[in-house]
Amino acid sequence: MSARDLKKKILARKARVGVVGLGYVGLPLIEAFNEKGFDTLGCDVDATRVRMLNSGRSPIKIIADTRVKRMVGSGRFMATTDFARLRTADAILICVPTPLTRHREPDISYVVETGRTIARHLRRDQLVVLESTTYPGTTVEELRPVLEASGLKSGRDFFLAYSPEREDPGNPKYNTRVIPKVVGGEGRTARDLAATLYGQVVAGIVPVSTTQTAEAVKLTENIFRAVNIALVNELKVIFTRMGIDIWEVIEAAKSKPFGYMPFYPGPGLGGHCIPIDPFYLTWKAREFGVATRFIELAGEVNQAMPDYVVNVLADALDRRFAKGLNGARVLLLGMAYKRNVDDLRESPALRLIELLEQRQAVVDYYDPYIPVIPRTREHPELAGRRSVKWNPRGLARYDAALICTDHEAVDYAALVRQSRLVIDSRNATKSVATGRDKIVLA
Description:
- The protein is an alpha/beta fold.
- The chain is 38% helix and 12% strand.
- The chain folds into 2 domains: 3-218, 3-Layer(aba) Sandwich (Rossmann fold); 304-441, Rossmann fold.
- Strands 3-2-1-4-5-6-7-8 form an 8-stranded mixed beta sheet, with helices on both faces. It has a 5-stranded parallel beta sheet with strand order 10-9-11-12-13, covered by helices on one side.
């Protein structure tokens, strides 16, 4: 089968699409292809996740069981831990994590190991697309040599491309199907094949000249957000000292129809992209002798926010009750990195608990999406901790409630009414009319 035959197969929706990594990126992606009539194969190393999917249950709360049951019921979806089945796929899309090491350097081990696994089963005329966020050059400098260890050559025997994921978990307005897809390939044929494939399921395709360009696009998007969040976090600290409400400032500023885009402060950055992606570029920039001072400064500001929030809490306790954090009982509201999701990756809540307990506070947490804290790389000591049950009448036993994540399911009016002190780092209590004297914005 030639590239022309593969393209015809894609256009006829007879191609089989394999997705490696069935998490927040891979699962919505494979669902999109399944709904358009493609035969789909999902591969994951997590056997529990695979069993759940094949039985019609979703491992992710933001994706309902009914959606998974629909995929399974179509007869065109199967999840497996047997990566040898990838040989039956015409296109293989890689959606695996790309975290940072303890030294804040890129960890592309998941990409490399996935590439080695694929290489053992790679066959001629397959399209391989990397979606994981990474530094420019990863696709051709790291993934290609691993795949070519199979004896097959990119551009001759198989086709290699990069198309960055653009998922926003928990955002009902933007899903996989409506977000345009940036596509870069190693050569025009690879790019066109990837563009043809994604063009069957998404609203628009944005082709770029190389895989390196596509990789840079993804980093640029998230660095833009990280820098602007750092700016507004710094403004929050400044304006708070001046007695000015940063949230009121933003609401007024965003009325300007041009030249301004609202970003919002918080207790720190979380998630799989914004806290990580800037450091991928700063690391790669060193190879070219370039300093990324602006990006690194933004990272420093954002990383300092949990300390700022804890200090605000300590000062408020001292002013209100003439006591410090030592021995104070604190209820932390929200462990997830953003509202209405069950994703804990890089959540500032983990750092907040660490800082509070270092100062001898007694900390509980409540999160309807995360009943138990899973094991994480940076905070393994918190694994197994359980959320308390929501009980407004029990809030009075805490010295303070600290809002880290503004889940919509929380009754903030009851929280303010029953709590002794509320530290709100997300402006979640903005619509609460009574008891505002208890609220301290952080």
